[in-house]
Amino acid sequence: MNVKGALRPVRTLKAVYRLVPRVLKKPGLPPGTPVYTGRQKVERPKIAVFDYDEAHYEERVAERIEDCFPLVDTPAITWINIDGLHDAELITKLGEKLELHPLVVEDIVSVGQRPKLEDHEKHLFIVLRMLSYNGNEDHLESEQLSLILGRNYVVSFQEREGDAFDAIRERIRYLRGRVRKMGADYLAYALIDVVVDHYFVILEQLGDRIEALEAAVASEPTPELLREIHHVKREILLLRKSVWPLREVVSGLERSESRLITKATRVFVRDLYDHTVQVIETVEAVRDTVAGMTDLYLSAVSNRMNEIMKVLTIMATIFIPLTFLAGVYGMNFRYMPELEWRWGYPVALGLMFVAAMAMIVYFRRKRWF
Fold this sequence. Notes:
The protein is α+β, with helices and mostly antiparallel strands.
């Protein structure tokens, strides 16, 4: 049994799952009921806290979400990062402290959300998709990242541990860049900017795979390559689904009249919008390239088949006169002068050889092979 072939339907189902969000809510629940709709990816939620201003910073891991509440009320900037969303009670307690709308709490734990921006006066709610490449299973993984931007705090919600924010943490620790000198809105911008920059990394990885596929398709097209092309198509579809709505989110931040976004930060958000548009244009270009690879594969297979048919046709054409001569002298007529002739057999073979060579010379002059 071909195990690799048997696993292909499973791989296809995984791809469909990543494109279609799971719905685990029971029908009839009232709006605002927090029910986690994803897969539990950590044993227990991890709460990491940064509390800083230009003069000092504090970094620690909180055991309970209540330990973070006093920091929210201080004038320093507080960044609370929560890894793991399966504990709906924890999210609900934080929502009550920050006076989040029940629908916002529901959207945080409902991980199939489309990237969006919501203005709730006292805070902004931002949802985007954070992508990573799983080298072991050879596919992209999509994770929902939710941000709550308040007057002097940012709360980020992730499904699992591990992200691309280490550079921001280093800038906070060692007073690099502007993050310690500006407000919470700049921190939120920096987090979104890292996510957008990581899209370029994903595109670069996909670009390397596409280049290798193009070379393989042009040299020797195989059914396995066609399946790989369709796999890359699904990856690009997932990337496109994550990036396209993000343009509206960044544009909304730039045009937002919320007091939480300062004039100094809007300049950086405008630059972030340019990067987002650049990612979208690159995704569309890669998508067109992969779409063209299917045509390239079909053309390569067609050309290969044409070459095979040409060789077979030439061989068949060469044997047509030989078959005719053999058929003539294979007839069982009683009176055939050549049958009694001493040199009849070698002359017949000579005629066949001359006819075959004449056709080969003719085909060579026509450059048919």
